[in-house]
Amino acid sequence: MELFERWESEIRGYSRAYPTVFTKASNARQFDEQGRSYIDFFAGAGVLNFGHNNPRMKEALIRFIEADGVAHSLDMATDVKREFIRAFVDTIIKPRNWDYRLQFMGPTGTNAVEAALKLARRVTGRSHVIAFSQGFHGMTLGSLACTANQYFRNAAGVPLNHVSHVPFETPNGCGMGCLNTLRETLENSSSGVDAPAAFIVEPLQAEGGVNIASREWLLQLQQLARDTGALLIFDDIQAGCGRTGQYFSFDGMGLDPDIICLAKGIGGYGTPLAMNLVKPEHDAHWQPGEHTGTFRGQGFSFVAGREALRYFEDDALMRQTRERGESVHARLKALAETYTAAGFEARGKGMMQALDVVEGTRAKAIARECFERGLLVGPCGVGGRVVKLIPPLTIPDDDLEQGLRLLEDAVHHVMEAEDA
Ligand SMILES: Cc1ncc(COP(=O)(O)O)c(C=O)c1O
Predict the structure, then answer these.
(1) Pocket flag, ligand 1, residue 237 (CB < 6 Å)
(2) Is the pTM for the entire model greater than 0.70?
């Protein structure tokens, strides 16, 4: 690790949490230089839904490279981009009877959010955006203004303007009550609060601590957006692409967002890709080439992302994800019940599950113990108090079982050490 410590920026994060040099990875396992194997319950912060080096995608990528496919194309039309768009429309859009335009931009989540905010402001002619407590939307100035976490906000160096935050539904939110208050505020022409261009929300907050909004709350938020002439932006960058046992985290709730932001898992292989689904009437407000991004035409991501979409041609992987999610949840619930006195809580949906251990230092100690035992997990939530489990959806049963046991051991170890 010396070379990293000497030469890489102080900004390093995960290499401090997992202080080893990784050399290989396959499905839900990573291996380091010492030949140690780690079960990956972190999956690139929600990127690797289909595992490391997914064999179908690897094969498709090798074929693409050998055939001199167009790896980089800005937003020129290519055969692989056409295949990706066709597969996405056929597999995801049409079965839902939706009509969205697909907008590509720079390849990371924050690029998707920036584009969504820009368009919402353009469409409405308003600047104020309403975001939610614990929300995480990225690190560039527009998206950072929507991100709630103070540690990240403090690094901005300039005022993060034009966004206000109101309480999310859970946890420690105020449920419907806060939305009702917000409605009263926005309907009161003397409240001093500007009409918003958009509401931006993660229907399932990931980095914010795995907080799940209810259908009722989201429907009410949608109604509020409609009534106030604002756009409803769903950021499904981490919870989408199959993570929850359905393609979108809000599937089946009868919701109709104006813009859906996707990134992370959509490129399939860990190859970067971001994409917004935009209602055509809003998309019509863009002028050609007005929002660009050099890497918005990633051939590798289209090839691997197209393979990823095959997992959604039937319900097999999603059904398995829902079933496994329930069994992982049951294990975490049992673990939480052992430490009820300490206030532990299990929550999650599909294969985004979490154990809230109340204290950030405790979650960090648990993650550290997991690492020592050969399991990668990442803390999230307010003060880092939540241990989040987001293994690849393709994780073999044995690895899932072994990973859960390692987590249980680590939690017991840390709690016994606290008692000692
Ligand atoms: C919900 C959500 N939105 C946006 C982002 C930002 O994505 P990126 O780090 O790729 O810019 C993240 C990243 O974790 C996220 O979880």
Answers:
(1) yes
(2) yes
